[in-house]
């Protein structure tokens, strides 16, 4: 699979597809399973300082073309996550996803993820429905710069920032990550969304709002990556609605050097990475691409 090898800055991945944060990545065994099924790396569920139960049910519903979730960032807290990381990092590359309220909290969490053997840390600056976290801190370029700068000073592993599409200043946020020394941006997290049950005259999710993922968001993600590519020099990881090799190729040609798959692990099955890898290789052979690098940003030329 050397043709599929790619670099996200200093980090080499043997395969360009990673499991996106939030799917099959809450425990060591689930992360291991995805690594054995063709993922180049797994991004962990976002972990915070303290254990968090998350929202009560329903926290997840299916819509045409996707899923809407408001899990509420459930996680066991950074201390308890050590054991999951210890098991999973023995099998392959784990990117530690973290959420926090500001520079100090993010820096402390990133340091722990580095201690646990994470190959990179992904800052969740983009959850669309968490009070005081996610996009509430990730849509202010000055705050983003402060967080990324602080984390860069605290760790020596690569620092990635996962960005929200729920903004009209995506380019400014991307620039803030780059100016602070961030190693890569990851685009996009879910789109803020709502589903209402006419029968009950109420929002379906207990949190009322959630985030839309799945194939419906793919064109939004591809556009975001394309736009970021025009303003940034740092690597871009594409995510949002990827189900097959064609979707992955779109993101790469928009400017991504690697990609993540989330909802499709549920809808297509755990062998989705093997299928994408095979399809991408066949496409590259047929169209004369010798590497992911050669495909990267091809739609801009
Ligand atoms: C959640 O746990 O509610 C989703 C996290 C995210 O969208 O980043």
Morphology: globular
What structural class should be given to the helix and strand makeup?
Answer: alpha/beta
- List SSEs in N-to-C order: EEEHEEEHEHEHHEHEEEEEHEHEHHH
Annotation field: number of helices:
11
- Return the CATH architecture: Alpha-Beta Barrel
**Hetero groups bound?**
succinic acid
Uncertain regions: pLDDT < 50 for 5+ in a row?
A: none
The beta-strand count equals 16
What percentage of the residues does DSSP assign to strands (E)?
A: 15-25%
**Roughly how many Å apart are the termini?**
26 Å
Mean pLDDT: 97
Helix content: 25-40%
The count of domains is 1
Give a verbal description of the structure.
With 301 residues, this protein is α/β, with parallel strands linked by helices. The chain has one domain: Alpha-Beta Barrel (TIM Barrel), CATH 3.20.20.70. It has helices at residues 28-36, 81-89, 103-115, 135-138, 141-154, 170-179, 218-231, 245-254, 263-267, 272-287, 292-295; strands at 6-8, 11-13, 17-19, 41-43, 60-63, 66-69, 94-98, 120-124, 159-163, 184-187, 191-194, 196-197, 202-203, 209-213, 236-239, 258-261. Strands 3-4-7-8-9-10-15-16 form an 8-stranded parallel β-barrel, surrounded by 8 helices. It has a 4-stranded antiparallel beta sheet with strand order 5-6-14-11, with no helix packed on it. Strand 3 (17-19), helix 1 and strand 4 (41-43) form a beta-alpha-beta unit. It is globular. The protein binds succinic acid (SIN). Succinic acid is lined by residues 22, 46, 69-73, 124, 127, 134, 189-190, 211.
Annotation keywords:
single chain, 301 residues, alpha/beta, TIM Barrel, eight-stranded parallel barrel, four-stranded antiparallel beta sheet, 11 helices, 20% strand, globular, binds succinic acid
């Amino acid at each position: 699979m050397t043709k599929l090898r790619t670099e996200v800055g200093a980090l080499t991945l043997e395969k360009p597809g990673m499991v996106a944060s939030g799917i099959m990545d809450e425990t060591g065994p689930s992360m291991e399973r995805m690594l054995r099924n063709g993922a180049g790396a797994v991004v962990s569920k976002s972990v915070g300082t303290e254990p968090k139960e998350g929202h009560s049910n329903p926290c997840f519903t299916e819509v045409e073309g996707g899923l809407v979730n408001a899990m509420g960032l459930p996680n066991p807290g950074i201390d308890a996550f050590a054991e999951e990381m210890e098991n999973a990092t023995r099998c392959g590359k784990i990117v530690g996803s973290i959420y926090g309220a500001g520079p100090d909290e993010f820096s402390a969490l990133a340091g722990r993820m580095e201690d646990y053997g994470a190959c990179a840390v992904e800052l969740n600056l983009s959850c669309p429905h968490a009070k005081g976290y996610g996009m509430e801190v990730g849509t202010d370029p000055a705050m983003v710069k402060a967080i990324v700068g602080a984390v860069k000073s605290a760790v020596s592993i690569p620092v990635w920032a996962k960005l929200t599409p729920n903004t009209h200043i995506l380019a400014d946020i991307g620039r803030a990550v780059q100016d602070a020394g961030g190693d890569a941006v990851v685009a996009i997290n879910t789109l803020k969304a709502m589903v209402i049950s006419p029968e009950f005259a109420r929002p379906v999710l207990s949190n009322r709002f959630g985030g839309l993922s799945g194939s419906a968001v793919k064109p939004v993600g591809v556009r975001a990556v394309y736009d970021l590519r025009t303003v940034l020099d740092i690597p871009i990881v594409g995510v949002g609605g990827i189900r097959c090799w064609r979707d992955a190729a779109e993101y790469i040609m928009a400017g991504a050097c690697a990609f993540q798959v989330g909802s499709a692990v549920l809808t297509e099955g755990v062998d989705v990475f093997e299928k994408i890898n095979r399809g991408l290789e066949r496409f590259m052979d047929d169209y004369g691409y010798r590497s992911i690098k050669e495909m990267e940003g091809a739609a801009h030329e």
